[in-house]
Amino acid sequence: MAKKPFEITLNLVPKNIVIGIGCKRGTACEVVEKLVSKCLETANIDINRVCAVATIDIKADEKGLLEFCEKYGLKLFTYTAEELMNVEGIFTKSEFVLLQTGTDNVCERSVVKHGGKLIIPKTAENGVTVAVGELPVTLDFAKEIL
User: Fold this and answer.
1) How many CB atoms lie within 10 A of CB 114?
2) For residues 106 and 10, what is the distance between their CA atoms, to the nearest angstrom?
3) DSSP state of 73
4) How many domains in the chain?
5) Cβ contacts of residue 146 below 8 Å, gap of 6+?
6) What's the pLDDT score for residue 65?
7) Is residue 34 part of a domain?
8) Where do the DSSP E strands lie in the chain?
9) Is the pLDDT of residue 14 over 60?
10) What is the domain-level CATH number for residue 59?
11) pLDDT at 3 over 80
12) SS (H, E, C) 95-130
């Protein structure tokens, strides 16, 4: 988290970050967590801003991914290979991933499919791929409280 300008500081932290994750079958939670943390730190993004994790449907039962989501209280959203391939944009393509999953990229396409604007492209390490996206935020402090 960024340095506080005052001893007592109120930080309004929008939960508008979505993480796209791809991984090899059997990847441990700690391996996923390490790469996610590394990616968020490079962009100075607090883990408390993350609202969702997105991936391909064949990873819906991936133990390490589910443990990561549970640890941070995040919902896992999954999309089919067809849904991911229909997402428009320029993505880091992998022929290997295409042959294994039916889509040429899981992490970046998952972020964009979930509605995020890609802010950290695919980063790969130890069989895990992570991309980070930002969802739009609207703050309205003028609403009447009843």
Assistant:
1) 20
2) 36
3) T
4) 1
5) none
6) 98
7) yes
8) 17-23, 50-56, 75-79, 117-125, 128-134
9) yes
10) 3.30.420.180
11) no
12) HHHHHHHCCCCCHHHHHHHCCCEEEEEEEEECCEEE
Residue 145 covered by a domain? no
Q: Is the pLDDT of residue 132 over 80?
A: yes
C-alpha distances out from residue 114 to 4, 53, 132, 138, Å: 32, 9, 11, 17
Residue 7 covered by a domain: no
Range of the domain at 37: 25-134
- Separation CA 24–CA 30 (nearest Å): 14
Closest CA to 78 of 97, 93, 61, 95: 61
Phi, psi angle pair for 101, to nearest 5° = -120, -20
Instruction: Determine, yes or no, domain membership for 33.
Output: yes
The pTM for the full model equals 0.87
Could you read off the pLDDT of 79-131 as tens digits, one per residue? 999 999 999 999 999 999 999 999 999 999 999 999 999 999 999 999 999 99
* pLDDT at residue 87, rounded to an integer: 98
The two structure tokens encoding residue 8: 């007592």
**Using CA atoms, how far apart are residues 97 and 78, in angstroms rounded to an integer?**
16
Structure tokens at 84: 């991911």
Q: How confident is the model at residue 135 (pLDDT cuts 50, 70, 90)?
A: very high
